[in-house]
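Next comes this protein.

***
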Amino acid sequence: MFQKKYSIYLGTESEETFNSFIVEENLILIIKIDSGISKDNGREILRDISDSVKAHKIQSLDDFENFLSSKWKEHNLPTEFSYSAGYLYRDSLFLKTNQNGQIFIKKDNNFAKIIESENRASGKINSGDFLVFTTNEFTKIAGGEEIVGKIFDHKSPQEILEDITPKLKGEIDQGTIALFLTLEKISEDNVLIEKDNQIESQTEIPKSNMLIDKVIQIKDFLYSKLNGKFSKKPVTILIVIIVAFFLIWSLISGYNRNSIKAAELIREKLKQADDVSDLNLSRSIILLTDAEKDLSTLKKKLNNNSKTVKDLEDLIKDYESKILKSEEKGFSEFYDVSLENKNANIQQIYKNEDTIVVLDKYQQAYIISLSKKSIDSRKSSNLKDVISIAYFQDDIYFLKKDGVYRLTVDDKTKKLIESDNWGQIKDMSLFLGNIYLLDIKKSDIYKYISADDEYSGKTSYFVKGQGINLEGSNSIAIDGSLFIGFEESIVKFTSGLRDGFSTSYPNEKLNFTKIFTDENIDKIFAWSKPDGIIYVLSKTGSYESQIKSSILKKAVDFVVYEKAIYAVYGSKIYTIKL
């Protein structure tokens, strides 16, 4: 098993070209498409390649070449594109390039270009092997193959990046890309648990006290010379002063150069974080964190109020907001139920189409049309100790420990479903009139089918053998597929079968309180009450953005309708614009 460490050089962006890369599990790929594709489309293609390679059984060079060929055809890529790719299989590495693609390798002290253009190769890989996946554009601006070989000189991928960035940024590097990769073999019994290919910041910045020490040494030198035997020789004094001036000037200019280099590397890491965010969010977060650490180090050497520090602080904030797609939102009052009952205290909210129902603590429910902003109230002595509430075709449904009830427009209550050997029912949802109950103790979801004002006996939603452990789950949401919310994850099922749903979140620690979606919404909303955040995901699990608002830390429940979040707290319903 090999551990991969890498760094990536990405040249100046161009509107016409798309450059990006993948380093995931066994696949390494850099790609350059000169025209005919948008950046969003390019990211979708790489995301598909990254996801689908896991499902392919690649055990030979032919398998790898066929996989890549099928993907290029599937996505109908333009003819003018270049790539360099590798695939690790056990102790072998399969390699493939086309057009301007190039792959170099350094084994021991030998450096060579393995393949380029339309070519392929495979061979045994050894611990410590160092590879470059690039295109000939990068090789040219770096100074040629011989210069590329000298870059390696016992350096780590990150050290190489730090070394070449200031030099290449002075060149016309538009559209260039190079991935520096080292492979270290680790035993199966001693696998290192690390963050995704974490780059450790190795930016060296001269310490300010070192500069002060040097100036003090020069001062002592001057003092000794000017008060010694040369003190009466004007020419000697002048020479000593000139030498001291140039020594101090060189120290200060060297210090400034290192500070400029450190600032440039911080900017480069932020750019890389942005470039990889759509394909590898966890990697992007690591780069952001590294940039913040480097800035903290730089602050110790520079004045915190310096323009460089202030500019970098603002730049990091801008990139964080852009990459995490995080927005701090205000909120406004939509409706105050205390206008109907001065003691109102909302406990739950449920939405069906353009109507919400809110459950008051005092055995009363309010039905509110969001489009018309009209309100109706219903009351029942049974509306206490309610676990979950729902609304369908002008009737309110509510779940209690002993069964499911319906409250009609004339305030009449009917028990529809008896508790039937339930464990602990945590949530209820309705879809097309059918009732779904989440039993976290017995790890099942019960489905009750509606038929002529009656309901069938319970059946398991899951296809036989497809059930999962539901301990710790907290909510369900249905849009045709069924989504189950856990504290740190969401699981998707379709027609009782496990469906694909995988998310890379920007936050390490998650604490979901509830999830929400329905057939009229094309997103999943996951609420973390302790953090005051709602995460917005696609229905396949891709992270899209996060909404922060102070009301989300206090709210007791929420739903989403059209372009707003509706959160309830106390007697009031608040809205947060999306």
